[in-house]
TrEMBL record:
<dbReference type="InterPro" id="IPR050855">
    <property type="entry name" value="NDM-1-like"/>
</dbReference>
<dbReference type="InterPro" id="IPR036866">
    <property type="entry name" value="RibonucZ/Hydroxyglut_hydro"/>
</dbReference>
<dbReference type="InterPro" id="IPR001279">
    <property type="entry name" value="Metallo-B-lactamas"/>
</dbReference>
<feature type="domain" description="Metallo-beta-lactamase">
    <location>
        <begin position="87"/>
        <end position="270"/>
    </location>
</feature>
<dbReference type="Pfam" id="PF00753">
    <property type="entry name" value="Lactamase_B"/>
</dbReference>
<dbReference type="GO" id="GO:0008800">
    <property type="term" value="F:beta-lactamase activity"/>
</dbReference>
<keyword id="KW-0378">Hydrolase</keyword>
<protein>
    <submittedName>
        <fullName>Beta-lactamase</fullName>
        <ecNumber>3.5.2.6</ecNumber>
    </submittedName>
</protein>
Length: 340
């Protein structure tokens, strides 16, 4: 597959930890993506990815935003995550007469992607599918709906959009007025209970809600013809898991269901594209985190002791980050296991 790499100029600003799941700084991309002439010709670098699995291949480029054509008409845009966090990964699928965008992203990133799609395909964006309500996935909805698109999400996310989603958007209007100030919150209006299919004979995309994972309303986009899964934050590739809105026992169950799909490629919510091995890897983290913390609780250890002592070597091999650095995850799971 061809990978197009793009370096984005950016200015820094500090974000609210309350409105955003990741305790890190993010930057705002100012420079639009550049492509020459027709087609997906990278101005900077073109390279061939020999393995779809970043983990398996030991291949990561956290400092770059890249676009990969995973299959004809199916695009994956991996957002830069280091040294600063730009937003979520996105996808788009080119149908005969229209385009489906997977995850809106922040408004400024959404504007870049919308421009890029328009330039490349000339087709209208008819749908934008939000895998969940978090601002880095859904706050840019209005960029697409202003162009005539309809925003889609699972019905179980509706309440979250109306409450925490709207709340986070208003906070971002205060903290990031130059990006959010003049914009109106646009929540999804097309809602599906468990499954929705978009199929025009050329492309088929199944939007699936399995249950409470990263949030209560998580949904994924499954392309059965190509075996491609756009997983949102139900599956990430790297130390990106945020558990604050999750139910980790249910999350493991959702991943078990997702594993029944004949997956070839996973386009995760954050981090590099992966293969079918990424879903069990993600599941292993929550299974072992829960088991290890439960064992420590049974041994009479305090939360502070668990945070100091916990070991999960495979997690560092996978993400490059010591499991003890993910204190939010440890605290959340401890809370789940002690609040029964
Ligand atoms: Zn999220």
């Amino acid at each position: 597959m061809t990978l197009l790499k793009q370096t984005l100029n950016a200015t820094r600003f500090v974000m609210h930890s309350m409105t955003y799941p990741y305790n890190r700084e993010i930057i705002k991309a100012q420079q639009p993506m550049k492509y020459s002439r027709r087609g997906w010709i990278a101005l900077l670098t073109t390279l061939v990815v020999t393995s779809a699995g970043g983990y398996a291949a030991g291949w990561f480029s956290p400092n770059e935003t890249t676009i990969t054509e995973l299959a004809p008409g199916v695009f994956f845009r991996k957002s830069q995550t280091e040294p600063v966090f730009l937003g979520c990964n996105q996808g788009w699928v080119e149908f005969k007469d229209f385009v489906l965008v997977i995850d809106a992203n922040f408004p400024n990133q959404a504007a870049e992607v919308a421009k890029l799609i328009k330039k490349h395909t000339g087709k209208p964006i008819r749908y934008v599918f939000d895998t969940h309500y978090h601002g880095d996935h859904a706050d840019g909805n209005m960029i697409y709906t202003a162009q005539g698109a309809t925003a889609i999400a699972s019905e179980n996310s509706q309440l979250l959009f109306d409450t925490k989603g709207l709340d986070g958007f208003r906070k971002s209007q205060q903290s990031k007025p130059e990006e959010y100030g003049p914009l109106n919150y646009e929540k999804p209006t097309l809602l599906f209970p468990r499954k929705m299919v978009i199929d025009d004979g050329t492309q088929r995309v199944e939007l699936l809600h399995f249950g409470h994972a990263h949030t209560a309303g998580d949904a994924v986009a499954w392309l059965p013809k190509q075996g491609i899964l756009f997983s949102g934050d139900a599956v990430v590739n790297g130390a990106f898991n945020y558990t604050g809105d999750s139910n980790t026992a249910s999350w493991v169950g959702v991943l078990t269901e997702i594993q029944t799909l004949p997956i070839k490629t996973v386009a995760p919510g954050h981090g590099e594209v992966g293969d079918e091995k990424l879903v069990p890897l993600q599941k292993r983290y929550f299974v072992e985190l829960r088991e290890t913390i439960q064992q420590a609780i049974d041994d009479g250890k305090s939360l502070d002791e668990i945070k100091a002592d916990i070991e999960l070597p495979f997690y560092q091999e996978w993400t490059g980050v010591d499991v003890r650095e993910r204190t939010e995850n440890i605290e959340f799971v401890y809370g789940e296991l002690t609040s029964r």
